[in-house]
Amino acid sequence: MKSRGRARAYANIALIKYWGKRDEKLVLPMNSSLSLTIDCFYTETEVIFRKDVDRDYFYLNDKLQGKDTTEKVSKFLDLFRKAAGLNLSAVVKSRNYVPTAAGLASSASGFAALAAAANVASGLNLDNRQLSIYARQGSGSAARSIYGGFVEWKKGSSHQDSYAVPIDDAQWDIGIVIVMVNSMEKLISSREGMKRTVDTSPFYKVWVESAEEDLKHIKIAIRNRDFKKTGLIAERNGLKMHAIMLGANPPFCYWEPDSLKVMQIVRQLRREGIYCYFTLDAGPNVKILCRLSESHKIKDRLIQFFDPDQVIIAKPGPGITIL
Length: 323
Ligand code: ADP
Ligand code: DP6
Ligand code: CO
Known about the structure:
The protein has 323 residues and is α+β, with helices and mostly antiparallel strands. It has helices at residues 67-84, 106-121, 128-138, 190-200, 204-223, 227-246, 257-271, 295-302, and strands at 4-16, 21-23, 28-29, 33-50, 57-60, 63-64, 89-97, 150-153, 164-168, 174-179, 276-280, 286-291, 311-314, 321-322. Strands 1, 4, 5, 6, 7, 8, 9 and 14 form an eight-stranded mixed beta sheet that branches. A four-stranded antiparallel beta sheet has the order 11-12-10-13. A two-stranded antiparallel sheet has the order 2-3. Strand 11 (276-280) and strand 12 (286-291) form a beta hairpin. The longest helix has 20 residues, at 204-223. The radius of gyration is 19 Å and the shape is globular. Residues 14, 17-19, 27, 33, 107, 139-141, 190-191, 281-282 line the site of ligand DP6. Residues 176-310 form the Mvd1 C-terminal domain.
């Protein structure tokens, strides 16, 4: 056994959203989803199983974490310990090169990096498919961050067949412009928000059917490298996800006034013939799917309204890397 592992994983932006679990413990989703891994946000995590500690220690961005966050990491490491027959506690050090809990997929890069590092440290050496199944149990969206480019997370019929698969490397002039409207931690976590939506939104059932339909069509659009269709489907799917939250009880909304401002700018750009499409996850920050070759033009427009530091250009990112 090696006992030490270190890995990097990149965040991903969902184009067809995962919003709701059919099994909360195993993190099995209600619908399949699809994302683009991006190269500008990532997490690096080191896991060391040690004989000289009697509990797990989790440091995030150099700060020792409290009980709740550490417990999530411990439970996740238990999956590896159990499979590897390992009885040691761990010291985990992670750094997010992404704002934490701001709707920019820190849980995706975070748990994918943790899974990849624990895989090495535990000596399990799972393949990427198994690793996706493990990452999924930390955070659903993390299942997709195992891979680069466009990735589908198949909802599956059970624990063993709910995993992500890479479907396209996205190397066809695809880019993402991110507008950081607010990078503070959100008040309602993705976990809590999706549970409330499933439990109380009268629109939930329609969402699931509609998302499966969107997925079918976006996969065809991606296969045909039909950028406009890909973008239009993604934009509509994202709006539908936010609509079902407005129907929840109590209702909630992740948008801020500046999120709407960005949506207006995107629509105006389209009227001018610059094809780009917005999507928001569980937070106020806006991601704009665009032609990479037009990303600078889009940024130039956005910085007429926002600080240049708030606007980030991303390329399609790679899968996990062992460091
Ligand atoms: P986000 O939009 O950033 O994905 P979530 O609400 O889905 O927000 O998840 C945020 C949670 O993910 C954090 O509170 C923490 O528990 C977990 N998390 C974030 N970064 C890491 C990391 N590097 N390692 C392990 N867990 C992480
Ligand atoms: C809106 O994967 O963060 O970003 O599985 O409870 O950890 P948990 O939730 P998480 O949810 C992501 C929600 C989303 C859409 C998506 O990424 O598909
Ligand atoms: Co998340």
